[in-house]
Amino acid sequence: MKKGYLYIAIATILFSSMEIAIKLTNGTFNPIQITFLRFALGGLFLLPLAVKKLKKEAKLTAKDIRFFCWSGFFCVVISMILFQLAIGYTKASTVAIIFSCNPVFVLTFAALFLKEKLAGLTIISIIVSLIGIVVIINPFEVVDPIGILLAVLAAITFAIYSVFSRFGTKKYHYNGILITCFSFIFGSAELLVIMLFTHIPVIANSFMTNGLPAFANVPVFSGIGWASLPLLFYLGIGVTGIGFSSYFLAMENVGVSLASLVFFIKPALAPIFAWIILGESINFHTAIGIIIILIGSFLTFIASREIPKITLLNEETLKPR
């Protein structure tokens, strides 16, 4: 259990700095390119650990490869591209807060498809945290509906990836490192193929004509230099490799509900990081929203005393007879 809390703390800090680090790459990397680079780096960083894990168990089968192709597709190709586009249309802090709603979809999908039960207090904490997120977004002053829609779609598709990965841990006994590593590697490979297609003149011209220049002639290695390497390594190895694997290891140790604390604390922590690093001000309704979210997170922490029993019961019912 203590190990699970450590994983939550690591993932929370790294995820809360993600949008800030991505914003700092503006002007250096194409948004599609930085998605490919950071997930490729994260996957390669975790590869030795994943290979070591495979040696103890078994080799990858065709079934495993299909699974990781799908998980990588939902995470890297769909969710993270939507995420990048959302940042381009609206403020990074707004995207961070909306994306943090994905536990609502994770817990809902997990209850529907994985039959995972929710503690009553967990449901209350979700509602409280959502109220806090709404207060921070301040819907009465929304001026970027496209960016917000893209951020919501990114959150939903990331939730699909999370629940699909959770299904893998239950049915196929993949651990967090395996799922994270191979999802990133296969997802990056799929994205690389798409990037290469954008260099075909007909496709590139089509994107340019329709006002989507970011999708035309997407570079692969352009912009990589000594000045950009530290930030690239932080995004790829830190945020993507260590952050995502810590999140899934947290799910293994304490279950989906408690691991979702990562995204309930993130909307409160990300604006503080943005204030310290980028000098972005924290207005009154953001401060109130942060307090509400922290209250919701505290309720989730209290409810976690029920989670291990529920998780253990679910695991027992899924064991082969």
TrEMBL record:
Q: Which residues cross the membrane?
A: 31-51, 67-89, 95-114, 121-140, 146-164, 176-204, 224-249, 256-278, 284-303
| Localization in the cell | Endomembrane system
Q: Which domain of life is it from?
A: Bacteria
What membrane topology does the UniProt entry give? Multi-pass membrane protein
Keywords from UniProt, A to Z, are: Membrane, Transmembrane, Transmembrane helix
EamA domain residues: 3-137, 146-301
Q: Does the keyword Translocase apply?
A: no
What broad class describes the main subcellular location of this protein? membrane
What's this protein's family per the entry?
Belongs to the EamA transporter family.
What protein name does the entry list?
A: EamA family transporter
